[in-house]
Specification:
The protein has four helices and no strands. It is an all-alpha fold and about 250 residues long. It has helices spanning about 1-35, 40-65, 70-185, 195-250.
Length: about 250
């Protein structure tokens, strides 16, 4: 009867070992799914494998000596308790890993949405940049045209100044000639009536010429002022365009 009891106990141990093997298989499967999260569990399972090897040795010892059965059973109970603790711990870590996986999935979706938004913003910025580059190119062409216009206005202004200088010189020469004629008229005070008429005619011509010179000088001054105003307007417009280009480039 005692032998049967011992054999029954051995079968129980074998069933328990089989049960432990099933648990080991289950733990190995869980370990494969959560390799990174359950790395510590893998070490614990290795320790349990060592314990199972020890239990196998204990089984061989039970076949040799029945007196050590109670100690082996006690160790098995403790081992089973440890395995239960480890199983509960593994289940808790698996649950936590599942929650972390769900959280990572949500974060991935958020990141993908943010990435799509950033891509759309990047396309918009690229489009605006292309528009800005087109605007810069157009403004550069306008600047070149304005610079050419300014140079043309400066040339016209220089030509007008030369014309004005010539007119002033001619006016001075006519003034000198008029003064000389006046002196001659004063010297020839006793001239004939024909000479007086000729002098009046010349004086009228000189007066007309002086008036024409003055009108031409006024027109030249007006044209010069207009050219100056055009030049100032062109320079102001060019400055505004350059400021707009700088602001656009800075933006």
């Amino acid at each position: 009867m005692e032998k049967q009891s011992k054999e029954h106990q051995i079968r129980s141990l074998q069933d328990e070992v089989a049960h432990q093997d099933e648990i080991m298989s289950k733990l190995n499967k869980e370990k494969k799914h959560q390799e990174e999260v359950n790395r510590k569990l893998l070490d614990d399972l290795h320790a349990e494998e060592d314990k199972l090897a020890h239990m196998a040795k204990a089984k061989m010892k039970l076949e040799q000596s029945m007196d050590q059965l109670e100690d082996a059973l006690e160790r098995e109970k403790r081992s089973r308790q440890d395995l239960d603790k480890q199983r509960r711990k593994a289940e808790g870590e698996l649950k936590m890993a599942h929650e972390n996986f769900e959280e990572l999935s949500r974060q991935k979706q958020d990141v993908e949405q943010a990435l799509k938004k950033k891509e759309a913003e990047l396309l918009s910025v690229a489009s605006r940049l292309e528009d800005e580059q087109s605007l810069v190119a157009r403004l550069q062409r306008q600047i070149k045209e304005l610079l050419a216009r300014v140079q043309e206005l400066e040339e016209e202004l220089a030509a007008e100044r030369q014309a004005r200088a010539k007119a002033d010189k001619l006016r001075n020469e006519m003034q000198i000639e008029l003064e000389e004629l006046s002196d001659r008229l004063d010297e020839a005070g006793g001239a004939t009536h024909a000479q007086v008429e000729l002098n009046k005619k010349r004086e009228a011509e000189m007066t007309k010429l002086r008036r024409d010179l003055e009108e031409q000088a006024m027109q030249s001054e007006q044209q010069l002022n207009q050219l100056r105003k055009k030049h100032q307007d062109a320079v102001a417009e060019l400055s505004d365009q350059i400021d707009a280009v700088h602001k656009s480039r800075t933006k």
